[in-house]
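Hi all, long-time lurker, first post. I run a small reading group and we've been trying to get comfortable going from sequence to structure in the token notation. Rather than ask abstract questions, I figured I'd post a concrete chain and ask someone more experienced to write out its structure so we can walk through it together at our next meeting. Sequence below, copied exactly:
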Amino acid sequence: MQQIPPDFRHNRPLQLMVGWLFLYWAAMAINPFNRFDWLLENLLVFIYAALLAATYRRFTFSNLSYGLFTLFMTLHLTGAHYTYAETPLGFWLMEWLELERNHFDRIAHFAYGLLCGYPLYELLRRLARTGRGWSGFLAVTMVIGFSGFYEVIEMVVAQLVSPELGDAYLGTQGDSWDAQKDMGLALLGAILAMSITLYRPRRKPLTPRQKPLE
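-- Answer (accepted) --
Happy to help. Here is the structure in token form:
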């Protein structure tokens, strides 16, 4: 388990991560592919950012978890700027691997499970105090649960707020099984994250001879 980081005022790595996300968000806010789609994609960004800020004093994640959050949010902000179906990286992979569609959305959903699985594991270990195995299992369950919930919310928001955006916001690209495939990739990413977390070599406890002097 990672050590709890110091207060934000003295946590330089976290300050750099927050600064990076703010600057990158500002850059991605300039002339997005579809302004209304960008606003919809950023709704959850604002909600989660506010939630993390509001609960920071009550529960502070490790810098490792904040780093994983930062990587995922960088991917999401990129997708929000271009829309997930029009992201250049996806087109580059599409041409290089001779794919039939832009798979950036698939990459983002896999990254969600891979990068957000550990923070959920950390939350369970420290807050619920569950064992390592149960925490890993529950973290995977939470990833697939949140992924399914997001797919439902995404569909409802698209229908209520802006039905005309349709495929641009949902990013299905004509695939009727898009939501199920996205959830499957999030599940795969979470399983991989928990496999790395649970089966990485543990540090051997220090013997009395090795312990630092007080």
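A couple of things your group might point at:
The helical segments are 12-28, 35-54, 63-82, 88-96, 104-128, 132-161, 167-170, 178-199.
Residues 8-199 form one domain.
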